[in-house]
Write a structure and sequence with these properties.
homodimer; 193 residues; 77% helix; 0% strand; DNA-binding
DNA sequence: CTTGACATGTAACAATTGTTACATGTAACG
DNA sequence: CGTTACATGTAACAATTGTTACATGTCAAG
């Protein structure tokens, strides 16, 4: 087993992530991937253990990156209403340059649902980590149960509308729906206070 | 090209649908599928044109079935609030026996996003048909734009929370979020009237 | 009986798959 | 020098893939 501080592994992982973002995982095969990242199929298995493990490792890194960005949005927008943060994140995630993150998430997620054994490490926490991040920006005056339900609602709504946008390409319709959610969310939060 | 009224094709399609619901499409290969439905790979290609066309045809039938069921819910619940219909459909779709429909939808959807050429016929309308169904049960007093946004919101929210439930297995949390949505949706509808 | 459309059967193609065994290199450190 | 850990190279395995060419069967309508 290679050491955890190997930077060859890290380099390969970063290059592979780029490849995954461009090509998806459904038709992924190790040899073309290895060729693109300047390596060999043999070595990808050596460094990551298996194809599935490589994909899972890549997805965990990607998730962390996106969540780091969300955390930065929260930090920069301290004091903003949760509904505004949701809209800011929506704008960030649905920008042309970030769409490929969403696409990859949805692809791997769908595969993971049908084959939890293969991608279980990714699936676990795929939603719950987001819900926890969202809970943290909801008013502390709410009960734990209310925060949980409202955070889940916000995450679910944004995720569903992202999927809509990616599928239909109709950004205006999806963004209008997000705006409607924002006002409804504000009302909901006010009513619980 | 085989005629459209061939019932051999129809039988094979129905049997294939059952197989897809149990096994997903990612690891699907024609020979095992053919064996299970009492046919040969050769004939599946003959009847459907290609593997991808078979999957797409199956998905369109499945979507129609689920949407027919939604329409039946609407018919039986005439006069109910939209938020109640949403919750009824949520209960139907997340029941143990129907979960596999959701799983298959999300799997194919993810694949379709990364490869629109392959599953384009399915992707087109995957969301818009649902949004139209939802628009139809919103008050006619709303403006067209409002109906569109609110319908998109309702569909997106339910879809996102379905994905959450399937991923996390936490039905209570997801259902609580749906309930929160229902009350918010009612408020939203009232405010527009 | 014959035409014709639908269905099936047999068999092959050419390419690719993830993974592994075995051996070699490299470079830092004692 | 020699040990050790990490990295790479070569090559093969065994199985499977979607699709196609070509031939045969089935069965109702003319």
């Amino acid at each position: 087993m290679p050491s955890e501080k190997s930077h060859r592994r890290e380099d390969l992982l970063n290059a592979s992530i780029e490849y995954l973002l461009e090509n998806g995982v459904a038709d992924l095969s190790l040899r073309p991937l290895a060729a693109k990242v300047g390596s060999k199929a043999r070595l990808l298995v050596y460094h990551f253990g298996s194809k599935d493990a490589l994909i899972t490792d890549a997805m965990l890194v990607i998730r962390q990156r996106v969540q780091d960005n969300f955390a930065a949005l929260v930090r920069d927008g301290r004091g903003q209403k949760p509904s505004q943060l949701v809209q800011d994140f929506w704008a960030w995630a649905t920008s042309k340059q970030h769409e490929r993150y969403l696409r990859l998430f949805f692809e791997v997620h769908g595969l993971a649902l049908q084959n939890p054994k293969q991608y279980g490490r990714y699936l676990e926490g795929a939603f719950t980590t987001w819900v926890e991040l969202m809970e943290a920006i909801l008013p502390a005056t709410l009960s734990r149960a209310e925060r949980r339900a409202l955070a889940s609602l916000a995450v679910g709504t944004v995720v569903g509308l992202m999927l809509d946008y990616l599928s239909s390409g109709d950004k205006k319709r999806a963004s209008d729906a997000v705006a409607q959610f924002a006002t409804a969310f504000d009302v909901l939060l006010r009513s619980k206070q």
